[in-house]
Design brief:
Shape: elongated
Low-confidence stretches: none
Structural class: alpha+beta
Number of strands: 6
Number of domains: 1
Radius of gyration: 22 Å
Order of helices and strands: HEEEEHEE
Distance between the termini: 62 Å
Strand content: 35-45%
């Protein structure tokens, strides 16, 4: 009985050592435009919009499918739940988080992009921000 319990404990410890998780985050403060969000020239459409892109790595380091920032951003726009075509929208406070789930034979890397979606309005037309 002791031998069985010892084997179970050793298997559990081995499994715990061979699995793991990691994460890293990044705040990018760059944009292709120079628009100020300080006045009443925008309204908040949705805050905390999130999109993800996942990949697959064999043995934790051989990439089979890589997650992409573009895929995560496309997922983010799909999660808004309303049509954005023809509207002057932009992402504000965009952050990117990278995480990986490590298992014995493979890992699953993931990129998550989170941002606030704002729409630019005519400053003289009375549009204001709807911050909380």
């Amino acid at each position: 009985m002791k031998r069985k319990n010892l084997a179970l404990v050793l298997c559990s410890i081995s499994l715990a050592i061979l699995t793991g998780c990691s994460t890293e985050g990044e705040f990018r403060q760059s944009t292709g435009t120079s628009v100020s969000l300080a006045g009443n020239n925008y309204k908040l459409i949705k805050e905390g919009v999130r999109g993800t892109s996942s990949g697959f790595r064999l043995l934790g380091f051989i990439p089979i499918v890589s997650p992409t920032h573009a895929g995560a951003k496309a997922s983010l726009y799909q999660s808004v739940g309303q049509p954005l075509t023809g509207r002057s929208v932009a992402l504000a406070n965009e952050t990117e988080d990278r995480s990986s789930l490590y298992l014995i034979l493979f890992s699953i890397p993931k990129i998550t992009v989170t941002a606030d979606l704002v729409e630019f309005t005519d400053a003289s037309g009375g549009g204001g921000n709807t911050s909380k």
